[in-house]
Design goal:
Elements: E1 5-10, E2 13-18, H1 19-44, H2 48-61, E3 66-71, E4 74-80
Antiparallel strand pairs: 1-2, 1-4, 3-4
Length: 81
Amino acid sequence: MMPQLVTVGYRRTRVWIPVLPVVLVLSPLLLFAVIGGLVACRVAGISPLGTLRGVGRFLCALPGTRIEIADGEHALLLSVR
């Protein structure tokens, strides 16, 4: 399942970012990134299909991830739902 919502918190401010609208807006750039990645895989001698499968599995594993970093008065929260 694709992540639906990313929450980014810095100090006491939280921002909710819906994933689908961001992907739709950035889709033209995403196409160039995928093509560039495939070319880089070919140059490096890595299987492009294996790389795409690995990226897909990584994205499917993201929902439920919660990362909290605190250092003194600074704190960062990243939550993927």
